[in-house]
Amino acid sequence: MKKSIKKFGYIMSIGVAMTVFAGCSAAKTTGQGNQANGNTIKVGVNMELSGAAGGYGNQQKQGIQMAADEINSQGGIKVGSKTEKIKLVIKDNKTSTNTSASVAAQLVNNDKVSVIVGPATTNDGTAQIPATNKAKVPFVSPSATDPDFTLQKNGKAQPYVFRACYQNNFQGSTAAKFAAKTLKGKRVAILADNSTDYGTGLAKAFKNAFDGKIVANQTFAEGDKDFNAVLTSFKNKKIDAIYAPGYYSEIGLIVKQARQAGINAPIIGSDGMADPKLAQIAGNKNANKVYYTTPFSTKASASNPVAKKFMALYEKRYHAQAPTFSALAYDSVYMIKDAIEREKSADSTKIAEGLAQIKGLKCVTGTTTINKNHDPEKPIAIEQLTNGKVSNTYESK
After folding, report:
1. Does the keyword Transmembrane helix apply (predicted)?
2. Which CATH number fits domain 17-165+302-377: 3.30.70.20, 3.40.1190.20, 3.30.590.10, 3.40.50.2300?
3. Sign of the C-alpha dihedral computed for residues 252, 257, 260 and 264 taken in this order
4. Quick check: 25 pLDDT over 50?
5. Which of 137, 139, 339, 372 is the most buried (most CB within 10 A)?
6. Looking at the domain that runs over 168-294+381-395, which CATH code has it been given?
7. What gap in Å lies between CA 126 and CA 124, rounded to an integer?
């Protein structure tokens, strides 16, 4: 099938804060955060390298390592009159909130990092906030999307929390407008992951923004395998589409079982589907008319010089097509580099100030500006799968 890029009939820009970096080899902790005092910049990595989100975490680790190696090969990061190289301190939080909190404390108190990249998920990222706030060390999650993730209870931005991916409200509303305006859907069923704030938040945002009728609103839990009963109920409601926000492990089975049940309506989802494993689970012949929102598309990025370079380097290094989560993590490192060089300091509080001031930075996932809520404003795309492969990309404009 001919591959093409199509435009949305509406304009979108999104928030995303990017992965945080740094600290120094001999940093010291004071009331002013971790102070840089060496010749290398320590970057903590608190990541889901095993457990339920291990697939995403390992992709992000690849992007982080790739960016750090590239920067180091070019001499490092300019910190005032000096140039310092990055030293990554990588730890596995095992997709556990308790472990994530413990890892964060180790990174800021024992390893003396001045910034942390990760975690990948909202729950694990939220768990590390108390430790990083106390130490005044910023972190950026490449992919936490809950709307309140970067906010305090008073509605103001968390001073040390940033992210590299747009929030659920934007992603869900984009999918709703796409379903109504591009796919011309009038009757949509929702089948959302209720195990995390990710799935429930996206479902709520879609429902609030959809200009049509929600004929069913069902949920599933992480680890569920059999979706036939609920899919049969959808089939009887004459649906035009299914909105299924969640992760590829369950959504792949939903796609497979929907097609086997004779449901040929479009299945729309979120960036948790942006992984080749989705088609592997669903089967290529079943992965048709499948759409998902994503901050990175290999098709949409073909005209972006930063993205083209990244994709070529990734393929050379890992012998595979670059995934969304590696792109977000790679961008995060470069945003941190930008923050350090602008502030001319690798002190943790200065890095936080620099991250908050990012404007118009050219990134793999699009030109990025950090807004007052520490969310990035950047483009969004929707990819379409045909026979398990990305066939079309619908871009914001």
Report:
1. no
2. 3.40.50.2300
3. negative
4. no
5. 139
6. 3.40.50.2300
7. 5
